[in-house]
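Lab notebook, entry 454. We have the chain sequence and a SMILES string for pyridoxal-5'-phosphate, and the next step in the workflow is to get a structural model of the bound complex before anyone spends time on docking refinements. Request logged below.

Task: model protein plus pyridoxal-5'-phosphate, output structure tokens.
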Amino acid sequence: MEQTKFLLAESELPRRWYNIAADMPSPPQPVLHPGTGQPVGPDDLSPLFPMALIGQEVSEEAEIAIPEEVLDIYSLWRPTPLYRARRLEQEVGTRSRIFYKYEGVSPAGSHKPNTAVAQAYYNQKEGRTRLSTETGAGQWGSALALACKLFGLECKVYMVKISYEQKPFRRSLIQAWGATIVASPSEETQSGRAVLEEHPDSPGSLGIAISEAVEDAAGRDDTAYSLGSVLNHVLLHQTVIGQEALAQMELAGAFPDVVIGCVGGGSNFAGLSFPFLREKIGGREIDVLACEPAACPTLTRGLFAYDFGDTGKLTPLVPMHTLGHDFIPAPIHAGGLRYHGVAPLISQLVRDGLMRAEAYLQNDVFASAVLFAGSEGIIPAPEAAHAIHGALETAKAADEAGEERTILFNLSGHGHFDMAAYDNYFAGKLEDVALDEEEMQRALHAIEGLPTPA
Ligand SMILES: Cc1ncc(COP(=O)(O)O)c(C=O)c1O
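Result returned:
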């Protein structure tokens, strides 16, 4: 019998995170203070983040030790399994080999606890007792609620209203881990009230929820802000995924030609791909593919520009591919991919030609998700299904070219709390929305007058 799962022992858990900033051909451009136009310093960030995370945000060290307390909690579910998708390969009749790393085995059901645990740890160590955050579909909010519970911190979650209404069980999960949750836009912050005044029926967006969570943290000494993606330190914490996958591919006697992940803010994709990019920068040939929704095509159609990370313009200016900070993506079912920007590290790597991106329509993505579930058994999160679709498209293109590829993708989470989305797909109710050019141009007006990156 040929092997299906490639497993590492707990003792093989990576002991260091990998910081790609140390190896990038073009260093990332600085984050700017919107008032002065100057790079932000630690003093600007210290009301929101603990010093250890600010240090990681700007670190030039290639490796950063993972604290024992964090490793101890990682060991609840890490190392995660790597699978050879033999049944899927047979189902589609490809000559390529398809592997996937499965992050859905964490207690919250996705990769998000990899950074939530680290962030809660550093905050507790530096004396914060409460964290505030935003969540889209609820994956991040539930991961941070869990991490706060484990470190004895209070947690306040601003959840995008449309998901708050559509996904009551993620809400319950967040509550089960002891966090307080409110639908965003809410009446509890100035940013939320401003949106409600103009749009009483606003479905919310990640950009709005971030404004609320940042405002909450900035207004209280006991509270820090915690972000589930985009920032350098968040991507750093996720690199345990790719380091494990490198070792597991070796166990499988294989090395990927193509590494694939879905991209919202970019953290799971970075987590899998950065350790492989280290090899690519070192001279190995690997194609690294980011998969995003056509309704929110940040990397494939957005501008590389300085923009705010949130709608209320409370964050610093970030150099990234963006659709404009007041862009509200269509309510597609991959809630975690509905963000107007993307991680600056990923933007820079795409600009430098080390990674590339494709955008897909949601009915195609769900068709691939159902195909995957029918052969591999796992019901994927709609976000992760973008990576499955990317892997299947890659295999198809290789077959058509008479080639054989080794493909590795990240299955960033399971979809057990997303069955309403599957219901809609089965009922033929999912709309295929590709972002309209006119709407994109309108939204991009929001960044006019902001500084231009080099
Ligand atoms: C399962 C899953 N995958 C992917 C994402 C996208 O986030 P990121 O691009 O930071 O990995 C999310 C976000 O909520 C998610 O829940």
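Notes for the group: The CA atoms of residues 68 and 205 lie 36 Å apart. Worth checking against the assay data. The two ends are 55 Å apart (CA to CA).
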